[in-house]
Amino acid sequence: MLLSGQDAAAIDRAAEALAAGELVAFPTETVYGLGARADDDAAVAKIFALKGRPADHPLIVHVLDRADALVFAASLNDAAERLIAAFWPGPLTLIVPRAPGIAEAAAAGQGSVGLRCPAHPVARQLLAAARERGVHGVAGPSANRFGRISPTRAQHVVDDFGADLLVLDGGACDVGIESSIVDCSGRAPALLRPGQIERGRIEAALAAPLAERGADSPRASGTLEAHYAPRAKLRLMPAGMLNTALQMLGDSALKLAVYSRTVPLPPGSRLARRVMPDAPERAAHELFAALRELDALGLDLIWVEEPPADAAWDGVRDRLARAAAA
Ligand code: TXA
Ligand code: MG
């Protein structure tokens, strides 16, 4: 059931559902989340069941503010405090030590918990209305089936889960790729997943370089090699190689779509092409919707031009590399 996030009655209804242990899909500035109250292991189990997500992959807990973060965190170290001050509310998730006895299922039993304070007005209204009903955190992975492309529009959520799920519609997500994740659970802070907030800005807020993620860094499913997979096989190519491959293809019958920034289709080609924007923020904003659209054409292959190598493209490059690894 798709409800408008502009409608105060819909927000209340969604908050009631969360308080009662039901699932609600909601917009954030990054992607849509599939939410359940984080303090209720039975409610959280419904997320794992619906997504088809393995029970040992921890979920992020969404909170309204730092005070509610302290309901779930055992402590916040200096790095966590600095990042909260610099980037919350916003597209940044912190892995911190978990307070004992809470959000066990959401954290998949780990001693740490992922906390994120979203900036999207509908997410914030939902969290505020839920807090009035005694809910201090909403566990929520991206609202897609496990391993598939994250949803950046309410319709994407309906496409994955059908019309029975309560979905708050907040329009197209601004950022378009999932939050940056920084591990602040003990060791020197490390970037587990790149997002819109560039590495350099995180290091500036920390006044220290980020550590490399170590073999002992917490596991994150968003950091699995193969993730974000379209049904078609996705292949990433440098511009020159893509151009040559398209020229050589001629009129062959490959069922192929192209997602490129600088490489045009050969003259007369009837292939489907989507243009990747030149600005990295625009490219991130459109990435998952573009992949879902190209995938919906039912073709065998999607050839994608490699994005530029600079840091501003880290998030988009990461998601495309994972999609190609699937
Ligand atoms: O932007 C986002 O982060 C979106 C929106 C909905 O907030 N959420 C999202 O959730 O991307 P999800 O579950 O698809 O990705 C969260 C990532 C997963 O890779 C998970 O393994 C990792 O965060 N994670 C969560 N808690 C963790 C923990 N305690 N330790 C290590 N990794 C954790
Ligand atoms: Mg996800």
Question: What does this protein look like?
Answer:
The protein has 326 residues and is α/β, with parallel strands linked by helices. It folds into 2 domains: 2-206, DHBP synthase, CATH 3.90.870; 233-325, Rossmann fold (3-Layer(aba) Sandwich), CATH 3.40.50. Helix content is 33%, strand content 18%. It contains 10 helices and 14 strands. It has helices at residues 8-19, 41-51, 66-72, 78-87, 121-132, 154-161, 199-206, 239-249, 280-296, 314-325; strands at 2-4, 24-26, 33-37, 60-62, 92-97, 112-116, 138-139, 166-169, 180-183, 190-193, 233-237, 256-260, 272-275, 301-305. The chain has a 10-stranded mixed beta sheet, sandwiched between helices. Strand 9 and strand 10 (190-193) form a beta hairpin. It is globular. The two termini are 31 Å apart. The mean pLDDT is 94.
Distinct ligand kinds: threonylcarbamoyladenylate, magnesium ion
The CATH homology group name of the largest domain: DHBP synthase
CATH class of the largest domain: Alpha Beta
The major sheet is characterized as: 10 strands, mixed
Question: Can you tell me the CATH topology of the largest domain?
Answer: DHBP synthase
Q: Order of SSEs, N→C?
A: EHEEHEHHEEHEHEEEHEHEEHEH
- Separation, N- and C-terminal Cα atoms: 31 Å
Would you count the extended β strands for me? 14
Class computed from helices, strands and strand pairing: alpha/beta
How many individual helices?
10
Strand order of the largest sheet: 1-8-2-3-7-4-6-5-9-10
